[in-house]
Design brief:
By secondary structure, the chain is mostly helical. It has helices spanning 22-30, 44-53, 57-66, 73-89, 100-107, 113-122, 129-136, 139-149, 152-165, 168-184, 188-199, 224-234, 269-273, 278-316, 320-330, 334-340, 351-362, 371-387; strands at residues 3-9, 33-39.
Length: 388
Amino acid sequence: MLGAETDTVMYDMSSLHPNSSPKSSSLLHSQPYCIIERTSQVYLHLILRQLLRRNLGIHALEIARCCINLPYFPHVLELLLHQVLEEEATSSDPIPDPLLPRVVAFIEEFPEFLQTVVHCARKTEIALWPYLFTTVGNPTDLFQECLRTGKLETATSYLVILQNLEPIPISRQYATLLLDATLDSKKWELSKDIIRFLRAIDPNEEEMPPRTPLYSSSLPYASPIDVANKSLDSKMFVFSPALGGRSHSTNVSSIINESTVNTPLSRTKSDTKAIPARSSLRKSSGSRESVKDRQESGESMFFDIILCRHARKLLMACRLYDLGNFAAHLDFHLVAWLRKERTRAAKIEDFVTTLKRLHEDFQWPYPVASPALLQSLQKQTRNHSTAK
């Protein structure tokens, strides 16, 4: 708690005491009522940072594990990583003993590591991403780790990073893998967001290189091999408080924006000859529109194949409840699709097993025969056997 501030408010109490005398009502009006407002600020990441700087990783872990149940503990890890990253990545002077590898090794001791890295990256400028990911690892490996551990929400946050660091076909492939995982896990809203992300990808950018290369030779960052070799040493602070410092220096070069040169707008006669005719412009624009329409139709067919494949999977497993939720959340045309599949996936081969699975899926109780109905059935059976 940083402190408390008070504010005096005068309340009108005459409506609460209508039968009170004028003297008592004036006393009520003159009584002040104070409101206390608490102001607080998170400071745990500052303590952890100082302990890590002094190679006291064991004490930092003891303090952090005592606070792991606090609701804002993941935010503490984000603040710790973000502040160290901003300070070291924007430093113009060489850093003889960088703190970021020790901070990353410290955060790896907690299950919030993957979430902390992606939240910190999305709140940081893209120009600082190479310095971050040379220490925490390749974002593709982190994304695949999220898929293996079932952290699909965190994996969805990595898609924006992969879109900026990887070529468009590769990021589309990872998004498709994530879409299949979210559909299997019945996370319909998350699946809808991934489909929206895939539709927002510009097809014209598929042949372009990634906008932000992960490891650039022009930047004075450490190479991935050096970081991988030093990651084992950076993790030793947890078990050895007397670990010595490293002689690794890091600095960041400033990004220079080149100014554009204004060209004159006047044309010569030779320039006018190079201008194409309007008919050729119309033909080229028409060809571009046709290519764009073909690309959009190909994308829609790609999404239809994925959705139809999952719908067929649900129907063959007799999971009609999940199929209904799937169609409602993802705007899947279920009736038209069932008409197409009436002789394939929608065709029932074993009615008894299908009926049992329906009861299990919707949690319906089985019908129970009344005693009168049982007696009637037994009587009909006896009469039928006697008649024979």
